[in-house]
Design goal:
With 322 residues, the chain is α/β, with parallel strands linked by helices. Helices cover 32% and strands 25% of the residues. It is built from 11 helices and 14 strands.
Length: 322
């Protein structure tokens, strides 16, 4: 696996390429990457994916851009797990945004990357002011020595699989719908950091997961957690998680992910965990005092344990997902 930050120096071998933001690496992305690998194998070319950092909408309208389903690290891990050969990360800045469609094709695709086969989605747009589309690629491909294939959208239950549809499902608390479009439970990964130790004081110790981006969902959730046991990181542990601003405790509006693992009290500070969200129990609420909060947490834990007793296959469903 090779990861390239876009510079003026690249390997000189021709490649097969697909381009996208790949936020969430959902079923639609997975289908494109599978098609890419198949074509690349037949042509004897490395299978490569180009993505952008930051997301173009974060560059143009940072305060209106949609929340990310995955950070760059999680997106990279998801792409790697599909088995492609290389990832090209393009720094999306003002210079890149000013590239005309023709310049992008001749300079980036042909001269820098030596693309010989290109796969794009049916809604693909590129170049300054999104002026280029699949028709532009098809018109200019021959003179730039590559062929183009346009892939139709992937449908699940007659619904187009998209990052936007997944965000909407998560915001509505519909984790089953989101998981169906992702092909796995939605998850957040991060490192365990120091918290205020309140959970331990009230009898529910929590692992506080560092968040680098605003999450696309909030509330109280049934979760399975990977990575808490270093000797068996692939074995999930059951728990309940709070993802939100903790209105009973703080009023700074900063989202926090706290996970209480059942029957677990090991020191896991500094470890990197993956939290799979399986079921939403309720919305976040502000309580009059800590005692009322504790009683509600007791109910949440009981409901989460009942969930695992009645639906044990959720652990199996999560195994192996990225």
């Amino acid at each position: 696996m090779h990861t390239w930050r876009r510079t003026s120096v690249y390997a000189k071998k021709p490649i097969a390429l697909t381009i996208g933001n790949f936020d969430g690496v959902h079923l639609g992305h997975q289908a494109m990457l599978a098609r890419l690998k198949n074509a690349a194998s037949q042509l004897g070319l490395p299978a490569c994916a180009m993505t952008f950092e930051p997301h173009p909408r974060e560059f143009f309208t940072p305060h209106q851009a949609p929340v990310r389903l995955t950070g760059l690290r999680e997106k990279m891990n998801g792409l790697i797990r599909t088995g492609i050969d290389c990832i090209v990360i393009c720094r999306f800045n003002s210079d890149f945004a000013r590239l005309s469609p023709e310049r992008f094709i001749t300079h980036i695709l042909n001269q820098e990357l030596h693309v010989r086969w290109l796969l794009v989605g049916d809604d693909f747009r590129f170049g300054t002011r999104r002026a280029g589309d699949s028709a532009t690629l098809l018109a200019l491909s021959a003179e730039n020595d590559f062929t183009v294939e346009v892939m139709p959208s992937v449908l699940v239950d007659n619904q187009r699989v998209s990052s936007s549809a997944i965000r909407q499902a998560l915001a509505a608390g519909n984790l089953d719908e989101a998981g169906k479009l992702l092909g796995r439970p939605y998850n957040i990964s991060g490192r365990v950091i120091d918290g205020d130790k309140l959970g331990r004081q009230i009898g529910f110790p929590t692992a506080n997961i560092q968040l680098k981006h605003s999450p696309p969902l909030n509330g109280i959730f049934v979760v399975s957690v990977y990575g808490a046991n270093p000797s068996s990181p692939e074995i999930p542990l059951a728990g309940v998680a709070s993802l939100g601003v903790r209105p009973t405790i703080h009023d700074n509006g900063k989202p926090v992910l706290e996970v209480h693992l059942f029957d677990f009290n090991d020191d896991i500070y500094g470890q990197r965990l993956r939290v799979d969200f399986l079921h939403k129990l309720r919305n976040e609420e502000k309580y009059a005092d800590i005692s009322t909060l504790v009683r509600q947490i007791e109910k949440d834990v009981a409901q989460a344990k009942e969930f695992f007793m009645t639906a044990p296959t959720h652990f199996n469903r999560a195994c192996g997902a990225f």
